């Protein structure tokens, strides 16, 4: 009874939005009476976008959902099924023009099983969305629900009846399929262990095959010809078969999470060739053969997270020419074999790594592990475990913009990111990094965010950031740093330098530190508009930054007081020294620059360049100059940092 009330409440809140346009007076009757409704149901008009379907399928429109229907009002009934109730009667008493139905079965236990036949819904020919949830309930598919566009089944059993029509045997899809991965083409099979030797179907007659499917009562959605979204979560659907989704030519989104599926049989989805997204997250897949996902030429997102895949290779994926995102997290992958992703040359986002197994990144002789991912923008690798991340591991990622690594990486070697010409965000936080090569970032020139927080760094090599002229944010909080190289703050565009949670040994060298860079956090975006000469408004979104005194770096040798406090009050450093930033020969390794500096005693000075005042605002000279002026004329404005 308790749950009944809760559901009532939820829907009357939800429904009021969709209801408004229909009511003549604002304080009209409750929505149950809007149309005739059986006792155990709540009926209402709801905007389509309020239906669960839109909630489950993020970016429903993007996967091909009907845009016009989005705000259309839909006749929705939410019904509680009773253990001994007469479900058939209930369904018969629903209005025949119902468009969306949610069935909840809550009384389920060993004794109280409930079974509903698909044919029982036959009267509701206008039903486009069906949700059926509840442990202990069974849906027997005895005829196709050819009216449904969206179906969601959660925690129920799905069975086919013996009498269900199955697709007529045309021919096994493999006959048309001529893709061969490189190793099969060039037959260096024995170089890599094949994972799925028994890939082709066993040879049995079609009749035998149908008999077998009937015996297993494996559900089949053959004939659900309008289906666009099918979601079967936690329904014990532990086997798949190509016949199951055959002919679902309108299907765009298929989610089969939490079903204990162990294998994707050959051509499992090829009959639903318009699919744009598939999720098999939270299953028990142990291997993947390219026949499994064959034929999905429209697929844009593939979620295989939280399975048991322990090896992937170039035999794992068929061509997926439109694939934009692949989530492989939570699989116990130890290596990434070369050419694994060679079919993903259009993919933008890739996620790998698990807490089950450490991921070892390495270089391979003739084909890199990320080769062919030419369009990849975002790569996230978890639990990367390696002594030293070497030059070449990220070879081929020419368009990568965001790279996130987590794990145990003791050191980053020289040139490790070379070739990542478009890299904007590099997040290496929580990687236990102890050592960075001073040339680790050589070749990376577009970097805006460098996150090295929560590592085990004891020093930052001088010259590490020499080429980072675009860098806006450096995160070094949570390390074991005691000092920084002298010219560290010498970054033309930097806005945030996080240094807190380090055991700083404070000395006068820290006079060049800048409180309004260290004690600051990135805030939200803000739209700023300016009127042009012709009175037109031009707007752009800018990042805001907010001061946060709790972020002040602290001196381990002065009782944890803020660096700025110690410098002003506890150490007498004399006048603030202005360090001349030198900008020369970007792109050279640091040792070469040091060498050049020895020879060339005329470094180009920022003062001599014709830089607008605004642009200069972040430069060290401007900053330190400003500091001096302020500290003389308006001491109060700097005092915000004094008492931290
Ligand atoms: C479902 O259909 C079967 C066979 O057609 C029938 O025996 C059974 O009673 C039906 N169940 C319900 C709940 O209608
Ligand atoms: C392939 O089939 C054979 C015989 O049916 C079996 O012994 C073997 O374990 C199978 N291999 C795989 C990888 O499933
Ligand atoms: C993949 O599915 C899991 C489980 O639903 C979800 O948590 C995860 O966010 C999905 N991955 C992506 C990249 O959307
Ligand atoms: C991906 O590779 C295939 C085959 O090599 C090629 O036909 C296709 O144009 C490539 N796509 C992109 C986006 O580079
Ligand atoms: C990384 O993998 C190991 C197994 O090799 C596991 O014990 C550890 O918990 C994982 N670490 C994380 C952070 O997930
Ligand atoms: C840097 O990494 C830390 C730890 O993972 C995270 O909390 C923080 O948000 C990251 N900073 C930025 C700016 O992304
Ligand atoms: C590395 O740093 C983490 C916190 O960032 C700390 O818990 C750990 O003890 C450190 N390990 C070593 C070996 O210093
Ligand atoms: C700024 O961001 C807002 C919200 O993300 C967006 O609606 C707006 O179009 C953006 N404006 C510009 C000029 O990009
Ligand atoms: C500096 O730049 C301004 C415009 O940005 C230009 O008018 C001026 O001539 C430049 N001065 C020199 C010395 O180049």
UniProtKB/TrEMBL annotation:
UniProt keyword list: Leucine-rich repeat, Repeat, Signal
InterPro entries: Leu-rich_rpt, Leu-rich_rpt_typical-subtyp, LRR_dom_sf, LRR_TM_domain-containing
PROSITE patterns for the chain: LRR (PS51450)
Keyword hit for Chloroplast: no
Domain of life: Eukaryota
Signal peptide annotation: 1-18
PANTHER family with a match to the protein in the record: ANTIGEN BSP, PUTATIVE-RELATED, CHAOPTIN-RELATED
Protein name as it appears in the record: Insulin-like growth factor-binding protein complex acid labile subunit isoform X2
Gene: LOC108085341
């Amino acid at each position: 009874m308790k749950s009944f009330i809760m559901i009532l409440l939820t829907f009357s809140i939800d429904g009021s939005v969709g209801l408004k346009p229909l009511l003549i007076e604002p304080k009209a009757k409750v929505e149950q009476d809007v149309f005739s409704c059986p006792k155990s149901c709540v009926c209402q008009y709801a905007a389509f976008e309020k239906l669960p379907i839109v909630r489950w399928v993020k970016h429903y429109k993007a996967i091909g959902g009907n845009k016009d229907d989005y705000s259309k009002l839909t006749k929705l009934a939410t019904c509680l099924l009773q253990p001994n109730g007469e479900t058939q009667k209930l369904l018969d008493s629903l209005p025949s023009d119902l468009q969306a139905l949610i069935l909840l079965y809550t009384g389920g236990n060993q004794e109280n099983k409930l079974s509903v036949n698909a044919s029982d819904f036959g009267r509701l020919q206008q039903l486009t969305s069906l949700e059926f949830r509840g442990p202990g309930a069974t849906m027997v598919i005895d005829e196709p629900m050819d009216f449904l566009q969206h179906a969601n089944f959660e925690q129920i059993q799905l069975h086919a009846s013996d009498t269900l029509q199955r697709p007529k045997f045309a021919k096994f899809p493999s006959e048309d399929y001529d893709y061969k991965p490189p190793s099969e083409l060039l037959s260096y099979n024995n170089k890599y262990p094949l994972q799925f030797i028994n890939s082709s179907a066993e040879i049995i007659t079609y009749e035998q095959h149908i008999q077998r499917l009937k015996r297993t009562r494996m559900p089949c959605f053959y004939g659900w010809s309008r289906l666009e979204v099918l979601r079967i979560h936690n329904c014990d659907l532990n086997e798949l078969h190509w016949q199951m989704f055959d002919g679902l030519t309108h299907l765009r989104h298929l989610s089969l999470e939490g079903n204990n599926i162990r294998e994707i049989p050959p051509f499992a989805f090829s009959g639903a060739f318009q699919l744009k997204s598939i999720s098999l997250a939270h299953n028990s897949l142990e291997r993947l053969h390219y026949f499994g996902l064959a034929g999905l030429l429209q697929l844009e997102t593939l979620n295989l997270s939280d399975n048991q895949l322990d090896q992937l290779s170039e035999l794992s994926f068929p061509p997926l020419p439109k694939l934009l995102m692949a989530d492989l997290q939570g699989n116990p992958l130890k290596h990434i074999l070369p050419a694994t992703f060679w079919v993903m040359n259009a993919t933008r986002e890739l996620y790998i790594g698990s807490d089950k197994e450490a991921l070892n990144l390495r270089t391979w002789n003739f084909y890199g592990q990320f080769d062919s991912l030419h369009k990849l923008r975002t790569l996230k690798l978890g639990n990367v475990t390696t002594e030293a991340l070497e030059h070449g591991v990220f070879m081929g990622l020419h368009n990568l913009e965001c790279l996130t690594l987590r794990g145990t990486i003791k050191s980053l070697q020289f040139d490790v990111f070379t070739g990542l010409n478009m890299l904007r965000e590099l997040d290496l936080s929580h990687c236990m990094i102890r050592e960075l090569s001073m040339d680790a970032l050589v070749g990376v020139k577009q970097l805006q965010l460098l996150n090295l927080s929560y590592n085990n760094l004891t020093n930052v090599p001088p010259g590490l950031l020499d080429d980072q002229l675009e860098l806006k944010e450096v995160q070094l909080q949570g390390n074991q740093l005691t000092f920084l190289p002298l010219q560290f703050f010498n970054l033309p565009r930097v806005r945030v330098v996080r240094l807190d949670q380090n055991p700083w040994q404070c000395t006068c060298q820290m006079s060049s530190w800048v409180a309004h860079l260290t004690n600051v956090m990135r805030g939200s975006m803000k739209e700023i508009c300016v009127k042009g000469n012709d009175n037109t408004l031009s707007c752009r979104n800018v990042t805001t930054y907010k001061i946060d005194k709790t972020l002040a770096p602290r001196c381990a040798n002065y009782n944890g007081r803020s660096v700025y406090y110690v410098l002003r009050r506890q150490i007498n450093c004399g006048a603030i020294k202005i360090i001349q930033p030198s900008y020369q020969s970007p792109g050279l390794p640091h040792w070469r620059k040091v060498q050049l500096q020895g020879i060339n005693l005329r470094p180009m000075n920022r003062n001599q360049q014709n830089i607008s005042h605004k642009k200069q605002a972040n430069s060290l000279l401007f900053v330190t100059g400003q500091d001096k002026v302020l500290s003389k004329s308006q001491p109060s404005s700097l005092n915000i940092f004094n008492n931290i």
